[in-house]
Amino acid sequence: MFKPSAITLALSLVLFPAPQQAVEINKIELPDMGDSSGTLITPAEEKEFGEAFFQKSALADFYQSRC
């Protein structure tokens, strides 16, 4: 059977629905701050770092599997 707190919660959700403000959040328009990609490292450097990371990761897995 239902607990009194579950019935209270169900009734409160039915009788007091969420206000319409929650639905209107999608209408907020934020200013365009620009694209920050490529400002710290270039796409070429990002690719190089990624390849180095995965190469070292593969080597670490190789050495761990041999122990």
* Coarse morphology: flat
Q: Unreliable segments (pLDDT under 50, ≥5 consecutive)?
A: none
How many H/I helical runs? 2
Structural class: mainly alpha
Mean pLDDT: 77
Largest sheet: none
User: How do the SSEs run, as a string of H and E?
Assistant: HH
- Proportion in β-strands: under 5%
What's the helical proportion of residues? 40-55%
Radius of gyration: 27 Å
Number of strands: 0
Q: Terminal Cα separation, in Å? A: 57 Å
Tags for this model:
single chain; mainly alpha
What does this structure look like?
The protein has a domain at 40-67. The chain has helices spanning 4-15, 43-66. The chain is mainly α. The radius of gyration is 27 Å and the shape is flat. It is built from two helices and no strands. The mean pLDDT is 77. The longest helix has 24 residues, at 43-66.
Write the layout of secondary structure elements.
Elements: H1 4-15, H2 43-66
How would you summarize this macromolecular structure in one to three sentences?
By secondary structure, the chain is mostly helical.
